[in-house]
Give the backbone structure.
Amino acid sequence: MPSRSSDPLDAVLTGATEQIRSAVAGLGVPNPVVVIDGRSGAGKTSLAARLVRAWPLPQPVQLLALDSVYPGWDGLARGAEIARQGALLPHSRQRIGRWHRWDWQHDEPAEAHAVDPDLGLIVEGCGALTRASAPLTHMTVWVDGPASARRSRALERDGDVFRDHWDMWAAQEDAHIAREHPAQLATMVFTTP
């Protein structure tokens, strides 16, 4: 059912959630893996949270947000590789995965988290969709939108903490896009306003 929201972002995210939910339900696997990638402020985190709430299978789904994994502001590529090696690869082999939360305050790895191979998994974050990660998934999603709107949303969400790092982070996103072409690897692409 189409969204009746007067908020254009909400309408896109509602429609995207329903499309992904329907596709996941049609996969016919008990523990599907969905990777959601996109630029900062595009709506990836909101989309992932909505998908968790709307998960169509009886078993709950696990969410790994790369914001919890990136090893610092210059760690986009490294964080994506940590998620691939620690969560996606073991999950694809029906083995328990493990990743460590990054403690941004102390600038070091913190506690470990397990990834259950018997449950579905959503990995969300800039850099998550690569040529190496795509074969380990059942569904891949790319989310993007106009730069000014994305920047405004990201800075409203994270404030001055992100403002000082925006250009450095955007350069890492540019490098990821040039290297991996994630929109071309995506089975679904959504553009937010």
Notes: The two ends are 20 Å apart (CA to CA). Residues 8-25 form the longest helix (18 residues). The mean pLDDT is 95.
